[in-house]
């Protein structure tokens, strides 16, 4: 039997304290296997982004347990010393807002992380161009970020999150600014990646166009999750 890529047990996150405390996650259980693309859906404010940020070690949970590929990352406190290395090497993020680096051009935004992780610059730029081509934005490869439309920025951000072959990709509304054909293209790329590299991918979405593509969907409401089978439509 495989080791889960992600295993959460009773994961909790409370923001603030006292009267102002918000219990965003009240005990989330979740298991994601290598090679799976899983949907995470729920109403606004239900804790979806909070869950992804905990998983990506962007914010610290306040209770429960989190394992990645069998390593205990959090159990009532962080259990590994180097969270930056975890974020750099093990997690690819696609945020709700693209957060691209404004003073680098498109190609270098995509190539940066692999370069920082030690790949040679030419190889990293070649791979960046392949990804930009797959996302149909290669014609903007030399442009500055400020010259791109919102949808183009999002596709560059997706290319960047794929560039370092992280075993886990966390995507927060990745298709929101895209038209339906491009949204399905993004889902096809994510599914191909999951199959080819055994990447585990969580996609937060409200997007009716892509929901039928998931085999499994976690619903989150009031800080807790439950799992449902999806259609798993082939795209
Ligand atoms: N930094 C913060 N400080 C205090 N409360 C926060 C903070 N971030 C989020 N919250 C609260 O935690 C709850 C969950 O927020 P979260 O951003 O995870 O929701 P979401 O499911 O991603 O919503 P959306 O679909 O609108 O993006 C909300 O009640 C929100 O107001
Ligand atoms: Mg959110």
Q: What do you see in this structure?
A:
The chain has six helices and ten strands, in the order βββαββαβαααβαβββ. With 235 residues, it is α/β, with parallel strands linked by helices. The protein has one domain (34-60, 81-229): 3-Layer(aba) Sandwich (Rossmann fold), CATH 3.40.50. The protein has a six-stranded mixed sheet with strand order 6-7-8-3-9-10, sandwiched between helices. α3 (106-116) crosses α4 and α3 runs parallel beside α5. The chain is globular and about 50 Å long. The model has no long low-confidence stretch (mean pLDDT 92). The structure holds adenosine-5'-triphosphate and magnesium ion. Keywords: ATP-binding, Cell membrane, Membrane, Nucleotide-binding, Transport. GO terms for molecular function: ATP binding; ATP hydrolysis activity; transmembrane transporter activity. InterPro entries: AAA+_ATPase, ABC_transporter-like_ATP-bd, ABC_transporter-like_CS, ABC_transpr_LolD-like, MacB-like_ATP-bd, P-loop_NTPase. Residues 6-235 form the ABC transporter domain. It comes from Candidatus Propionivibrio aalborgensis.
């Amino acid at each position: 039997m495989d080791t889960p890529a992600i295993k959460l047990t009773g994961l909790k996150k409370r923001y603030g304290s006292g009267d102002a405390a918000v219990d965003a996650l009240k005990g989330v259980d979740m298991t994601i296997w290598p090679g799976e693309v899983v949907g995470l859906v729920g109403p606004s404010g239900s804790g979806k982004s909070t869950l992804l940020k905990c998983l990506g070690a962007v914010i610290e949970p306040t209770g429960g347990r989190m394992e990645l590929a069998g390593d205990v990352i959090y159990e009532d406190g962080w259990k590994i010393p180097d969270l930056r290395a975890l974020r750099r090497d093990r997690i690819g993020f696609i945020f709700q807002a693209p957060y691209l680096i404004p003073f680098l051009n498109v190609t270098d935004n995509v190539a940066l992380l692999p370069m920082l992780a030690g790949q040679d610059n030419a190889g990293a730029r070649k791979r960046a161009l392949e990804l930009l081509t797959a996302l149909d934005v290669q014609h903007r490869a030399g442009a500055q970020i400020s010259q791109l439309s919102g949808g183009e920025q999002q596709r560059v951000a997706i290319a960047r999150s794929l560039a370092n072959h992280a075993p886990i990709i966390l995507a927060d509304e990745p298709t929101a600014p895209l038209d339906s054909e491009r949204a399905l293209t993004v889902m096809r790329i994510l599914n191909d990646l999951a199959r080819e590299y055994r990447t585990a991918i969580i996609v937060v979405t409200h997007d009716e166009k892509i929901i039928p593509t998931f085999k499994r969907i976690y619903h989150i409401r009031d800080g807790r999750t439950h799992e449902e089978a999806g259609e798993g439509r082939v795209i």
